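Hallway conversation turned thread

IA: we were arguing at lunch whether anyone had actually written out Type II secretion system protein H end to end. Turns out nobody had. So, for the record, here is the sequence (186 residues) and right after it the structure tokens. Reply here if something looks off.
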Amino acid sequence: MSVHFFRRVPQQGFTLLEILLVLLLIGLAGSYVVGSVLPKDSRRQTETQAEQFAAVAALARSEALVSGRDYGIRLTQYGYSFVFYRSGEWQDVDKIRTLQSRDMPDGLQLSFKPGESVWQESLAQEEKSEDRETDIENKPDIYLWSSGEISPGQVSIQASGHTLLVVLTEMGNIRVQDPRVAEMES
């Protein structure tokens, strides 16, 4: 019986695994370059920011219910921040990480349309009747009371011809809505 030993010939070239790994890395690098070069999808960005605003507003409402403290949302054209009422004045929220102030990404803008004038009038009356001086700069645009109620209104988030509304109802409902649907309902 003869035993044949095969001599191993060194392989030349790459294994399939090595080729697939290189292709994966090239694909990842390419998608990063394309993503940073192409303009951002304003519709998607508007939807994301509107959903995020609605979620954080709902979180602030829940915090108001749980803590028994009134909260508010102060809006600017390019962002929003949260305040709470303590010791006769509105103060910035700084201890709750999820309620920190937020800036809108470039190209997005916020605007606010208050709801029924009855709410605005009742707030003004309440401030006069309690004879309290309120800090105008820190006064919120949207009130989130510890009872669960919200001052009604619409926050409009706009970018490059695309607009979405975050609708706030007095009973505490917060929803994202296309403005065309809002016009049809009213």
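OS: looked through it. The domain at 42-179 is CATH 3.55.40.10 (minor pseudopilin epsh fold).
IA: good, adding that to the notes. The CA atoms of residues 27 and 33 lie 10 Å apart.
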